Every structure is written in structure tokens, then in C-alpha cells.
Amino acid sequence: MEGKANIQDVAKRANVSIATVSRVINNQGGVRKQTEERILKAIQELGYIRNAAARTMKSKDTKTIGVIVPDINNPFFPSVMAGIEQKAREKGYFAILSSTNESPVVEQEILKNFIERGVDGVIITTANENGDHLKQVLEQGIPMVAVDRSIQYYDVDTVLVDNVKGSYQAVQHMILQGHEKIAIICGPQNTTPGRERFIGYKKALEDYNLKLDERYIFQGDFGERSGYQGAHQLYSLEDRPTAIFSSNNLMTIGCVKAIGDLDWKLGEEISFFGFDDVDIATFINPKLSVVSRPMHALGELAFQLLHERIQFKDPVPKREYKLSPELIIRESCRLRYPKSSPDGQSLKK
């Protein structure tokens, strides 16, 4: 019964009136301590979430949506949020933003709060893709859209970028520039972007008959510190890579900082390509080559799908969209010598 109990169920379990339960959950006082404890015990046993019943009975939407991101410090998410907010305002909706710091426990607490507030829908980049902790929201019939990361085991509309394509093209570019010792600073493999970007990296090496060298694979966590540590580890190798592919923007920042601290000449001794454009990309010398994502468009599409789910209650099959990334070639990946592509054509013209 967890997640589906209503106020009547709580009243019945505690052997009190609905009005008494209401006084307790709304902190109105006037209830004996023993009775209050009995009601709270019933709430816990039944998994009752305040306002769940009211939500199904209300005649009007709250015009509020909840947005959950794993790391508000990542510049990607504010850009996505800007797209969500623009479309939300056009439809008269207000968006509440919360960050989990990659904690499924915090995420669950936020979701419970959203339910209590009676949000009309949720847009989420989850900290745990298996989706078990999302059950409480989905069982309430609250529409949900996933952005950037998929949700397993549940039919949830999803908006992604083509991570495999983006990382493949970046690594391909470095290969065609003559690089064979290409390292990668990976994101977590239990996330869609971390996993798919590593797949694109491996596929590019395979297509160009280059060996996957474990020495050149550093497992990061999408944080700036891990990018810094990755660059240090790669620099310490006796046989250093000639190029690095960083799997996200924060790791790019950390990696570039480390390259500078190590006096590892960017664009000369070490070439570089990052996933996601960052502010520093055009401020440093040489300017960074990156895979750019349509962040604003991701947010706009996410809200569009959510709004459709809110407006049209009839169930429709899960929808998944993959937007195309764009390769932005700047100055951080130097030409060693031109290499032929699989079809025999050289990059050099």
C-alpha cells in the first residue's frame, strides 16, 4: 500500500476521525499526545504522503513543476533550467529548482516535498538511474520527464543528447590529426552520459584500428577535482598520451588547470578535446575544442513533453529524444600528421 494510502486509510488505521488526522498533519494542535503518536505511527506504516489524496481530488492545477538536478555547480544545468523556465513561463507555470549533490537519499526527500507541495510534474536528472526511489512519485500519477540521464525500469519520457556521436566525433578528429595515444577522463559508468561517452571513445579507436590502452583511461566522477587528478596521473606515465578527451565540463576545467600547473604545453605537447562548452574555453590560450550540447533546447523540449503529459491524461508510450551535439574546432588539438579515415580520405586538403 506504500505510496498509495490516503487520509481515510490513516484515520481508519489510527481509529480516529479524518479531521483529527488533518489537525496532526497540518500541525494545528489540539490533539492528545497519545492520539498524535498513534496517527504518526499509522502514517509511517502506510507510507502516507501529505496531499496525495488532495492532489487527485483537486479541480485545478497548481501551475508549479519541480526540477531536480544532481549538481547546481555544473554550468550545464543552469543553462538547461533557462530553457525550462522560458517555456514554463509561456504556459503560466512556475518552476522550483532543487539540487541533490548526486545523493539518491536527498533526491527522495526532495521528491516527497514536491508531492506535498502538489506539483503538477517533475523534470529530473536523477542521481540513481535504476529509478527505485522514484516509485513514490510515479505511483501518484505525477508526470515525470528525465533529462540527460535515462531512468531504468520505468516508462518515463527522456530527453538526451547523442553522447556516443559527440564523443566519437571528438576522438575521430584527434585521430585524423595524427594522434594514436589518446587518453580519456571518463564520467561515472553508472550514468548515461558517462557510459555513452566512453562507448563513443572506444568505438572511434576500434574503427581506426587503435588499441584500447588501459593506461590512458582515467575514471573520473564528473567533478573538477577528478579532472585535475586525471591529468596528473596521465602526465606521470612514462609513455604519456599525446591527446586527452575529457568527458564533461567540470572535469575539463580541472584537467586544464592541471595541465597549466604541470607546464604541460597545451596544444603543443598535449592536445585536448572536451565534452561541453565552458566559459574558459575561449578565454585561455589556446582556445579549447569542445563538443557543444544544445542545453537551452534540451530544457525547452523537456518542459514541452512534461506539459503534454500534464494536459493530456490519456497514457501514451514512452518517448525518447536524442538531440545532436556540435563539434566546435578551436586551437587545442594540434596536427601531428594527417591520418586517413576508414574510407581512405585524409583530413588534410
UniProtKB/TrEMBL annotation:
Q: Which residues cross the membrane?
A: none
> Residues in domain HTH lacI-type?
5-59
Q: Which GO terms describe its molecular function?
A: DNA binding
CDD domains to which the protein is assigned, alphabetical? HTH_LacI, PBP1_LacI_sugar_binding-like
Q: Pfam families in the record, alphabetically?
A: LacI, Peripla_BP_1
Tell me where on the tree of life, at the top rank, the source sits.
Bacteria
Keyword annotations: DNA-binding, Repressor, Transcription, Transcription regulation
Keyword hit for Transcription regulation: yes
- The protein depicted here goes by the name LacI family DNA-binding transcriptional regulator
Which organism was this protein described from?
Fictibacillus fluitans
Q: What taxonomic lineage is listed for the species of origin?
A: Bacteria, Bacillati, Bacillota, Bacilli, Bacillales
